[in-house]
Amino acid sequence: GxxxxxxxxxxxxxxxxxxxxDTAARNWKPPGELVESYQxxxxxxxxxxxxxxxxxxxxxxxxxxxxxxxFIEGGTPIPLDDADWxxxxxxxxxVYEKLxxxxxxxTCPYSLVGYCSTYRFNTYxxxxxxxxxxxxxxxxxxxxxxxxxxxxxxSQETTDHNTTPFSLSNLPFRARISQFLILPSHQSxxxxxxxxxxxxxxxxxxxxxxxLTVENPNEAFDDLRDYCDYTHLLxxxxxxxxxxxxxxxSTLFARRPGTRVPTSQLLPLDLLSSLRKQQKLAPRQFARLxx
Length: 291
Fold this sequence. Notes:
This protein is an alpha+beta fold.
């Protein structure tokens, strides 16, 4: 950054002095929306959510995503020079500790605990397709360069039938967790559980979201995800709805003993599919939890 035309990369003593006596830090507030508050070991924590198209969020990510290279194996930083419509698809969740007492007039009330980045991939939905037999012209569009959040119909489409601009965020999408990080000093304090549950709940109640997936999870994250998802299915009484068939057709064993029984004969596949879509879990993840 710059200060009165002067580059802020100075001597360590000058840098530390500016950090320790920055009175503006006391009034700093996280960008975005507060979505969850909780307590852990007598300390207060908050989870904030915002889209990457927000300049304040982009600046914050630019400064902290060096942690990805340090703590996430194979992790890569988010390209912050993408087009606005692409940046708008990134939704970032931050976990902060909110200090109840400030030691000085320059102490910031928020301290970073961790964060998670998610990306929204638009999905094809056959139910939204316009049939030519209905005599309607499908709405065609291209991604705008200067208007990332909405799409306007062409003049011909406006003439043919009543159309209005719509938001890209209203299109069906599949949310994907990309980077998930809790700083080492805050690990094993259930912050990862709180963060994942907040993200899952956020997208579960977002009508345009059809599914929550994870990009290349490691074993530790798989354990966290399994625990949270399994607990959720227990609390929603999903498992009691699933029953195993106890009577099977004799023709399955007529040829030879030990014949494998098809899954479709043991479990109600239509019900499983309906429950999975209702809970917005990925097919493989839901199958593992049911098993």
